[in-house]
Design goal:
Layout (H helix, E strand, L loop, with lengths): L1 H46 L2 H21 L4 H18 L1 H22 L2 H16 L10 H14 L4 H13 L3 H12 L8 H19 L1
Helix pairs in contact: 1-2, 1-3, 2-3, 3-4, 3-5, 4-5, 5-6, 5-7, 6-7, 7-8, 7-9, 8-9
Length: 217
């Protein structure tokens, strides 16, 4: 009896250990595939020729949607599907673009409910950017005040990050607060490098330098 009980206990313990060991692999699988989306976005946004950007983002959006569907309880795929859709909308234009930004907003709100702090506050950065750049009512939901609220939350989560500082600087300049906006753009330019995101950082720094040069001219 004792041996049987001990055997069952050891079997349960072993099963539990196998389950626990499987969790990091599952998490890494999602992270690895999110990294593929990140590099795909950087390539489509910064490297692909203008005439091919729309098609490139459509392909990437399909991959992102598949990952979101496969892992509905994870926030990261939703965030990146939203980022890809909003970028696709930028290069597409027209009524189809409005559908994409509305879908992106829904995805980000879903991701916020799962984990608002995921990816260094990218939920707030992306929502802030969407509210800042989207058309206002009745076409869409654009709202500079809401944009500022989200971007300030993003800066609390990631005060030295290149993206929240860049988008907040852009918003301030758009609101006529040039000096304050330039301060945030310069902070974005000096942001620490993100391991694994070198391609995105390089492209973003070019954008920042172009924005600063335009302001000087």
């Amino acid at each position: 009896m004792f041996n049987n009980t001990l055997s069952k206990s050891l079997a349960l313990l072993a099963a539990g250990l196998v389950f626990m060991l499987a969790l990091p692999a599952h998490a890494d699988a999602v992270s690895d595939r999110v990294a593929v989306l990140q590099h795909g976005w950087a390539n489509s946004y910064y490297q692909v020729p203008a005439a091919q950007k729309e098609a490139s983002f459509e392909t990437l959006a399909a991959s992102a949607a598949a990952l979101s569907t496969e892992f509905p309880a994870r926030a990261e795929p939703k965030v990146w599907e939203a980022i890809i859709l909003s970028s696709a909308a930028k290069f597409q234009g027209g009524l189809g673009a409005l559908d994409k930004i509305k879908r992106a907003k829904t995805l980000l709100e879903s991701a916020e409910k799962i984990d608002a702090t995921v990816l260094d506050g990218s939920v707030y950065t992306s929502l802030g950017s969407l509210y800042a750049k989207s058309p206002g009512w009745p076409l869409a939901f654009g709202d500079k005040k809401r944009a500022a609220e989200y971007l300030k939350k993003a800066l609390v989560a990631n005060p030295d990050g290149i993206d929240p500082n860049f988008f907040y600087g852009e918003l301030l300049i758009d609101q006529g607060k040039k000096a304050e906006g330039v301060t945030y753009l310069n902070k974005a330019l000096a942001a620490p490098a993100r391991p694994g995101r070198e391609d995105a950082d390089a492209g973003r720094r070019i954008e920042i330098r172009e924005a600063l040069a335009k302001l000087k001219s």
